[in-house]
Structure formats: structure tokens, C-alpha cells
Design goal:
Blueprint: H1 3-12, H2 26-30, H3 39-45, E1 55-58, E2 62-66, E3 76-80, H4 92-113, E4 117-122, E5 138-143, H5 151-155, H6 164-181
Antiparallel strand pairs: 1-2, 2-3, 3-5, 4-5
The protein binds zinc ion.
Zinc ion is lined by residues 38, 40-41, 83, 135.
Length: 186
């Protein structure tokens, strides 16, 4: 395989060393976890979305927040308000709202960042790599061509072009705008 083919193959199928199928990265996520205080529940309990709680959308059923340890700029998490670890335990109304929020988050990232693709998914259960297995969370991860580089391979470090504060300050106002465009609905 010549170099050009290798580059194109990496662009098409780059998740070999990043993204949601990386249980070894849980050590970063697990720092968030406290058995008594679920980090997602504390976001749900917060009165308003803010840079501090990383929340960008809040409703009676779901929340959308920035991942504190993003795989890529704009990596979002969608969580149900209920502290539930299995999607089988979500009622239809909550499940539907979750899926709408996942779609909304995807649309938001597409509009704000002009992303070319997204990884959307859930690590369902501890064995599947869920960092916080007791509270369901969907990952919505923006992808760009060529967004992988050698840093994650050699140093387990992802170089991100924006701080979380910058990302929040871009996305939070964009949520309001997109909601207005959609008549207030997800
Ligand atoms: Zn919780």
C-alpha cells in the first residue's frame, strides 16, 4: 500500500485508536465519578446551564452537556434526567426525548462547526466501557477529515484547538438560536 492509500484509508476509518471504543481511557472519566455524587445528577440539579457545569441544554427530561474530557472539540453528552443506567428502564417518552436530543446535538455541531461527520453512541453498561455506568449517556462526537494525529498514539494526549469555556460560549447561544429556528422543539 503506498502512502497516499494509507492516508485515505485513515481518513475513512480512523477510529482504530480514538473515540468511544476505548475502555482504557476510562481512567480519565473515572476521576469524575464519586459513588455518592453522580456528576450527571449534579448537572441536572443545577438551576441554570453554565460554563461551570458544562450544560448547554436543560429540559424536564434530558440534558446536553460538554464532555469534560473530550475526544474532539465539541464532544457532547446527552443524558436523561433520571439516574438510570439501562436504556431498557427508560420509558418511551424519556427514550424518545433522548433520541431527539441526540439528533439536536448532532445538528447543533453540524451548524456551529461545519463538521463532516459524527460518532454517535452509547457504552451500555460497565463491561462495554461506560465510565459512569449508573447514569446513561450518549456520546455525540464531531469528526473532521484528518482529525487524528500522532499525539493520541504516543502520549495518550489529544490536542484540542479550543478550551471547554470557548466551546461552551459558542454552543450555548447556538442552542437558543437553533431552538428558535425549530419552533422551540428539539
Ligand atoms: Zn445520576
Amino acid at each position: 500500500m503506498d502512502q497516499k492509500d494509507k492516508i485515505e484509508l485513515n481518513d475513512i476509518w480512523p477510529q482504530e485508536r480514538d473515540f468511544i471504543f476505548r475502555p482504557d481511557r476510562l481512567k480519565y472519566v473515572r476521576r469524575l465519578k464519586n459513588d455518592e455524587n453522580c456528576v450527571f445528577c449534579s448537572v441536572v440539579e443545577a438551576k441554570v446551564p453554565s460554563e461551570n457545569n458544562l450544560c448547554i441544554y436543560k429540559s424536564e427530561q434530558v440534558h446536553i452537556l460538554l464532555n469534560k474530557y473530550p475526544y474532539n472539540t465539541g464532544h457532547l453528552l446527552v443524558v436523561p434526567n433520571k439516574h438510570i443506567g439501562s436504556m431498557f428502564d427508560l420509558d418511551d417518552s424519556d427514550y424518545l426525548e433522548m433520541m431527539k436530543a441526540v439528533r439536536f446535538a448532532s445538528k447543533l455541531l453540524t451548524k456551529v462547526y461545519g463538521v463532516k461527520g459524527l460518532n454517535v453512541g452509547v457504552n451500555h453498561g460497565k463491561v462495554a466501557g461506560a465510565g459512569i455506568p449508573d447514569h446513561l449517556h450518549w456520546h455525540v462526537i464531531p469528526r473532521w477529515f484528518g482529525d487524528t494525529n500522532f499525539f493520541p498514539v504516543i502520549a495518550e494526549t489529544k490536542v484540542l484547538p479550543e478550551t471547554l469555556e470557548q466551546t461552551w460560549n459558542k454552543l450555548y447561544p447556538a442552542v437558543t438560536k437553533l431552538l428558535e429556528e425549530k419552533g422551540g422543539k428539539l
